[in-house]
Design brief:
alpha/beta, Rossmann fold, 2 domains, 9 helices, 33% helix, Alpha/beta-hydrolase
Length: 316
């Protein structure tokens, strides 16, 4: 496992980010795989993926690997300096600000660790989980023609309030028969739980806000991304295992039947849209990660290794 190092962004010199970097091996062009955390799991959970991939490709070419914890997350104990004085510290900055931090981190890492002065000459593969998928998409949008591939592991529903996934028993046109055999009160309770835990108005410990994420990424199927070499980036869309996710969700409240009836089909449609953010010839998915809930890299790292290795074969 790579040692954790610390780095101060030149744009935010008063704080330090925790990161790990592993140098490339036997490559003819600079390729960097960047792992983007969700709100739940820090960078440490990517290490088994990297270790298994290195074993799989033993004796062959390997890209450089970068993991990091955002401000206020995991081993990065420093808060985002721009959040100082924020009215609500749990909504101190948005995803676009995190993407700008990522850009600066990549500028410094490629210069200091790869000896490359032009960050855009490096082939980037972005691997994201949950909100990390939103960050990957935003980065590819903000810096077009710079991302060679994206591996999106159970993306956050960026344009959803997470409550509207379920029918509204208080809507004028609601028909109780439409949700049978689920009781109306059960749906009402599930909506209340989703609002309390997952609504974009709910902040995060790290200060990353989702309040404007629906405006930043209003559709799952667009805009279509521009990759290097005049074509779209390779995009692999991975979804959770329906039954595993339903069991995982039941521990937090929603019964399995409710998750399977409403959440899983909704998420599948979202992922079907995600597969359209690149050209058809460069798209794969959505595919299901067997036995994996929302945190695919934790539940099935072997599957992530398989899909990432497939992208490496196309990019290296």
């Amino acid at each position: 496992m790579a040692d954790v190092e610390f780095l101060a962004l030149t744009t935010k010199p008063s704080a330090r980010l925790a990161y790990t970097f592993q140098a490339p091996e036997a490559t003819t062009k600079p390729v960097l795989v960047v792992f983007l955390n969700g709100l739940g799991l820090p960078q440490a959970f990517w290490q088994p993926v990297i270790a298994q991939l290195k074993t799989l490709r033993q004796g062959g070419s390997l890209p450089a690997f970068l993991t990091y914890d955002r401000f206020g997350q995991g081993q990065t104990t420093d808060r985002d300096p721009q959040d100082a004085g924020a009215e609500d510290p749990t909504h101190g900055h948005d995803c676009l600000a995190s993407v700008q931090d990522l850009r600066q981190l990549l500028v410094q890492i490629t210069t200091e660790k790869l000896g490359v002065s032009d960050v855009d000459s490096v082939s980037l593969i972005l691997v994201g989980n949950s909100i990390g998928c939103a960050l990957a998409r935003l980065y590819a949008q903000e810096y077009p023609c710079t991302v060679a591939a994206l591996l999106l592991l159970d993306s956050v529903l960026a344009n959803s309030d997470f409550v509207s996934v379920f029918p509204d028993p208080d809507a004028p046109d609601f028909d109780p028969a439409s949700i049978q055999p689920i009781p109306v009160e059960a749906i009402r309770a599930v909506r209340a739980g989703a609002r309390r835990i997952f609504h974009p108005d709910v902040g995060s410990k790290e200060g990353l806000s989702r309040r404007n994420l629906r405006e930043l990424l209003p559709a799952s199927d667009g805009p279509q991304l521009k990759g290097p070499d005049g074509h779209g980036p390779y995009v692999t869309v991975v979804g959770h295992d329906f039954d595993t996710f339903a069991e995982e969700s039941a521990k937090m409240g929603p019964p399995k039947g409710v998750t399977n009836r409403f959440v899983n089909p909704y998420w599948q449609r979202y992922n079907e849209g995600l597969a359209k953010i690149t050209e058809p010839d460069y798209s794969k998915g959505p595919i299901i990660a067997p036995n994996a809930g929302h945190f695919v890299q934790k539940d099935n790292p072997e599957f992530v290794v398989q899909e990432l290795n497939e992208l490496l074969e196309k990019v290296l």
